[in-house]
Amino acid sequence: MLGTLHPRERLVEDDLMARFGLKRHAVRNALAELEQMGLVERKRNIGALVKAYTIEEVEHLYEVRELLETYCVRLIQLPVPEERLQTLLSIQHAHDDAVERSDLRQLFRLNVRFHRELFSLAKNPVLVEAISNHAQRAHSMRSSTIAMPSQLERSRQDHWELINALRGGDVEALVSLCRGHLSPSKEAYIQAQKLRAGPVDKLSAAR
User: Fold this and answer.
1) Whether residue 79 has a cis bond before it, omega within 30° of 0
2) Distance of CA 89 to CAs 68, 76, 96, Å?
3) How far is Cα 148 from Cα 121, in angstroms, rounded to an integer?
4) CA gap 144, 7 in Å, rounded
5) Tens-place pLDDT, residues 34-44
6) Is CATH 1.20.120.530 the classification given to domain 55-193?
7) Residue range(s) of every CATH 1.10.10.10 domain in the chain
8) CA triplet 96, 98, 104: central angle to 5 degrees?
9) CA angle 90, 113, 181 (to 5 degrees)
10) Measured between alpha carbons, how far is 94 from 106 in angstroms, rounded to an integer?
11) Cβ(22)–Cβ(13) under 8 Å?
12) What residue spans in the chain does CATH classification 1.20.120.530 cover?
């Protein structure tokens, strides 16, 4: 999620046991849970790998995410009560501080909290859980942008614009912002996949 591991990179059980001081069964349980989350895949005779999504899979996942998230914000009753806005503001101030310090771990956690709080304003917990589940599958895709200062700043500004749209009661702005907020990580991941596949494609074409 933080970009320290890349798609298709192997996750060796012995290395993980040594790194985290865990027994083998604990490592295997963790890998199984990460596989269910869509972050790890297992291949016969290879073992566990960081999940690599095809460009088509990325497009499909983000189409569903856009549908869920834009529909969700349309359900929010505006204007939003001030106490709910204050909760979002508190999270976002902490997010600003994490951007300033380039604290990627804290940024990741606060970003998840911000969006869950935002979507919970629709008062549909089943929809919020569906959004969270699909966002979880995209966590590894966000690794393409999470360490880029320009994208961190864009994300920070997007959050503030979302808050301002809530304050202004502008549902169309909320929808547009949610849609645009998804684009950078998707496009960066697709571009990275194309760069990785480039030499292979050229070799195949030559044959």
Assistant:
1) yes
2) 23, 17, 10
3) 30
4) 10
5) 888 888 998 88
6) yes
7) 1-52
8) 135
9) 100
10) 9
11) no
12) 55-193
Tokens matching residue 150: 């320009």
Give me the pLDDT at residue 140, please: 76
Burial class (CB in 10 A: 0-12, 13-18, 19+), 50: middle
* Residue located via tokens 């999940």: 51
For 91-123, what is each residue's pLDDT tens digit? 999 999 999 998 988 998 999 999 999 999 999
Nearest C-alpha neighbor of 182 from the set 102, 23, 64: 64
Q: 0.70 cut: is pTM over it?
A: yes
Q: What is the pLDDT of residue 198?
A: 63
Q: How far is CA 196 from the centre of its chain?
A: 21
Locus of tokens 């547009």: 176
- 1-52 folds as Arc Repressor Mutant, subunit A (1.10.10)
| The pair of three-digit structure tokens given for residue 60, joined into one six-digit string | 């499909």
Distance CA 121, CA 165 (A): 13
Q: How far is CA 80 from the centre of its chain?
A: 25
The distance of Cα 178 from the centroid of its chain, to the nearest Å, equals 13
Contact 161, 73 (CB under 8 A): no
In b/e form, how buried is each residue of 55-79, taking b as 16+ CB within 10 angstroms?
eeebeebbeebbebbbebbeebeee
